[in-house]
Amino acid sequence: MLEIQGLTSHYGRIQALEGVDLTIAEGELVALVGANGAGKTTLLRCISGVQPVTGGRILFEGRDITRAAPQSRVALGICQVPEGRQVFGPLSVEDNLKLGAFRRRGKRVADDLERMYTRFPVLKEKRKQPAGTLSGGQQQMLAICRALMAHPRLLLLDEPSMGLAPLLVGEIFNTVELLKEQGTTLFLVEQNAYAALGIADRGYVLETGGVVLSDTGAALLENARVKEAYLGL
Ligand code: ATP
Hints:
Blueprint: E1 2-11, E2 14-24, E3 29-33, H1 40-48, E4 55-60, E5 63-64, H2 70-76, E6 78-81, H3 93-100, H4 107-119, H5 121-125, H6 136-148, E7 154-158, H7 166-181, E8 185-190, H8 193-199, E9 202-207, E10 210-216, H9 217-222, H10 224-230
Parallel strand pairs: 3-8, 3-9, 6-7, 7-8
Antiparallel strand pairs: 1-2, 1-4, 4-5, 9-10
Helix pairs in contact: 3-6
The protein binds adenosine-5'-triphosphate.
Adenosine-5'-triphosphate binds next to β2 and α1.
Keywords: Amino-acid transport, ATP-binding, Nucleotide-binding, Transport
Domain ABC transporter: 2-233
Family: Belongs to the ABC transporter superfamily.
């Protein structure tokens, strides 16, 4: 579904990505792990189109989208849940969800809302409340649900567990697994390597702008280099 070939990206003279190769097949859950500053966020921003690419190519379902505008990537079904949740605090939970579906209309949107509420009853309970009054974990769930309202083909998740209490981290990862079971293709960027690789079909390890390892999630969890550098074992 997604194929990244020799991707490079710069901030001025600083090279943030140095020839990244990566693929994601339809229905897969692929994790990207790496330390602070490795280039994980930059890679996601290149895929969603808000960060300029200086070399290489990004193909989505065989189509070259390397220079496509962010909104045309959204139209193709690529949707990003940004780091730090970023729900619209003063708007109600329900309005946040509806905004996710702004490109769609009508009864289908109402059906989707009901589906989200069934899946996450706490969002239903608080649907009239300003989103800013939700807990951190609930805001993260809302941000993911808002993205799902757009019916993405590929969902990009940037550090969904960041800053959450351990109990909520578990809840977020359960949610990500649920999405996979329902057929969403997912690219999960995480500093929590243990949890991410534990649920991923495959994973990539990024160091200083380049992929240094890629394998199944299970194999990476057993990899000596991963254990030492990312799992603290
Ligand atoms: P984190 O987990 O901290 O978000 P990351 O793996 O996502 O880290 P990036 O944010 O993609 O890493 O950063 C990759 C490199 O690019 C780093 O060396 C960082 O200092 C640099 N960088 C990121 N954003 C900018 C910017 N706006 N201007 C200049 N350099 C930047």
